[in-house]
Amino acid sequence: MKQHLCALILTLPWCYSAATFADDAEQLRKTLISTSSLKADFKQTVTDVNQKVIQTGSGVFALAHPNQFYWHLTKPDESQIVADGKDLWIYNPFAEEVVIMDFAKAIDASPIALLVHRDDATWSQYSVAKKQDCYVIKPKAIDHSIVSVNVCFKQSQLTQFAVLDDKGNLSQFELSQQQAISHADKALFKFAVPANVDVDDQRLKAAN
């Protein structure tokens, strides 16, 4: 589930110059800056390497600068990912388990980090190429579980995004009902661990 944060890979022409990639990255960066917060409903479709549909779902997605993220899959099986800028929680109600991770380490492992990060150090880890109204983001390092993220806009509004993982799974997300985060919506980025669930605190393991 952690890897199924999006999908749709576009073929990039090899003749793109380094300057073109830099310009595309800057254009994406400016577009994201104009979207300081976002809340939307989403529909999800996941296909495998043979383009067979292996999962569909729906839920609510939200993000806010700086470094806040909310992901709530409501159908078919509930799960949540919440980040407050410091910590990240992954909650699986069916398994009655919560995994807690250091936000910076968790989110930096995916090109999706560019949606919530503004710093030069994070952006320098990824290449960006524009094709029509979409941007393909790829990690420069080759040891990533996420191969690429594709984000698309209409009049500066994020409308869809996708993730291709190293197993060939492609997760595609269509957004609707987009709106800016309200004061009440800020509570989305706070997570209280439910009672009687197993807690796997990866922060403690990283510290040892």
What does this entry look like structurally?
The protein is built from four helices and twelve strands. The chain has 208 residues and is mainly beta. It has a twelve-stranded mixed beta sheet. Strand 2 and strand 3 form a beta hairpin. The chain is globular, with a radius of gyration of 17 Å. It starts with 17 loop residues before the first helix and ends with a helix. The N terminus is likely disordered.
Structure described in brief:
15% of the residues lie in helices and 44% in strands. The chain contains four helices and twelve strands.
Q: Structural class, please?
A: mainly beta
Percentage of β-strand residues: 35-45%
Straight-line distance between termini: 26 Å
Strand ordering within the main sheet: 7-8-9-10-11-1-2-3-4-5-6-12
What proportion of the residues is helical, as a percent range?
Answer: 10-25%
Integer-rounded radius of gyration = 17 Å
DSSP strand tally? 12
Spans with pLDDT under 50 lasting ≥5 residues? 1-21
Which descriptors would you attach to this protein?
208 residues, mainly beta, 12-stranded mixed β-sheet, 12 strands, disordered N terminus
Helix and strand arrangement:
Elements: H1 18-33, E1 37-47, E2 53-64, E3 68-75, E4 79-83, E5 87-92, E6 97-102, H2 103-107, H3 120-123, E7 126-131, E8 134-139, E9 146-154, E10 157-165, E11 170-179, E12 198-201, H4 202-207
Parallel strand pairs: 6-12
Antiparallel strand pairs: 1-2, 1-11, 2-3, 3-4, 4-5, 5-6, 7-8, 8-9, 9-10, 10-11
